[in-house]
Amino acid sequence: MTLPALSVHLRQRMEGFSLDVDFEVPTGLTVLFGASGSGKTSVIDAVAGLSHAATGHIAVGDRVLMDSARDLHLPPHKRQLGYIFQDARLFPHMSVARNLDYARWVTRRPSDQPAFDRVVEMLGIGPLLSRRPARLSGGEKQRVAIGRALLARPKLILADEPLAALDDARKGEILPYFERLRDESDVPILYVTHAATEVARLATTVVALEAGRVIRQGTAAEVLGDPGFTPGGVRDIGAVIEARVATHHPDGLTELEAGGLPLFLPHVERSIGDKLRLRIAAQDVILSKALPAGLSALNILPGTIADIRQGDGPGAVISLDTAAGRVLARVTKRSVQAMALHPGTAIFAVVKSVAVAPGDVGAASR
């Protein structure tokens, strides 16, 4: 029997709610996802050994970090973790090279130049090695922080909202490096965020929390494709589909293939054949009962309505099954009634090419 990469079973009474969390996940990048106050920080603090308030059991593979039944609580420095914070927390008086080497020094390991070189190449920080943190951008600092965490040779990497302090441009710079870390490192990652875009692009597994409990667990497509799960509000609703780069057109569009259907996006810096994930926001999808004609929108996905969720307000979320995968559309209840929509209705989903933001397109996990 294969052991899970990470096993977490926690109980803790807290102000306002009780933490009651159980999950086991395979290797890869696991996202703890939920709104503020859902318990994400309490979980990651317990895994890091920064809090002893919870009871339960935590293990990375076969290595037990905490077992309250045996009064076992390894201190943080013995848990063999790499921690990436919101702010990089680099030593200002040290060069980038010395900041990276600090991970080796603090763990008292001999120098390993090949490992150092691999991490530097992965993160593209070779030109930065002689600089001090004051001369780095926010994105560069965070790449160095990722490298320092990796060079500690951890059994598990913890990333606590590592992009929260960055603007959209810097987030776009860092996300591909987390994708590489997910795909090229055999170290499991526990990643905390409340941003649906980060979940869609990065997650191998999503553990969704609400009021201290696990309410969903699955792939990014499964969790984000559930119209009943809206931790960030209705504007965060959107489905995740996987596609392959088919061709780059001379007019600046990239054509993808998803389940045999073409999708056109503004130029994507990927090679032909590369597999991608993209998030399509529900509010950017228009529905038509007939095959649309004379529209500027290029992406038309035929499908069938699987479910209609109507809330207390004027809106409704419609789940569509298409050859490309599950697609969500946010429309008004008036439109549902006027179009006589119901489960089983054949429908066409229309998506403008420019509606899919560059930040919502990333590499599919290998």
Automatic annotation (TrEMBL):
Pfam family, one: ABC_tran
Gene3D superfamilies membership: 2.40.50.100, P-loop containing nucleotide triphosphate hydrolases
Coiled coil stretches, renumbered: none
One of the record's GO molecular function terms: ATP hydrolysis activity
Xref: InterPro entries: AAA+_ATPase, ABC_transporter-like_ATP-bd, ABC_transporter-like_CS, Mo/tungstate-bd_C_term_dom, ModC_ABC_ATP-bd, Molybdenum_import_ModC, Mop_domain, P-loop_NTPase
Residues annotated as domain Mop: 294-360
Keywords, ordered alphabetically: ATP-binding, Cell inner membrane, Cell membrane, Membrane, Molybdenum, Nucleotide-binding, Translocase, Transport
UniProt cross-references to PROSITE patterns, sorted A to Z: ABC_TRANSPORTER_1, ABC_TRANSPORTER_2, MOP
Any one of the GO CC terms: membrane
Domain of life: Bacteria
Residue intervals of the ABC transporter domain: 3-236
SUPFAM superfamilies attached to this UniProt entry: MOP-like, P-loop containing nucleoside triphosphate hydrolases
SMART domains linked: AAA
UniProt xrefs under NCBIfam families: modC_ABC
Name of the protein: Molybdate transport system ATP-binding protein
Lineage: Bacteria, Pseudomonadati, Pseudomonadota, Alphaproteobacteria, Rhodobacterales
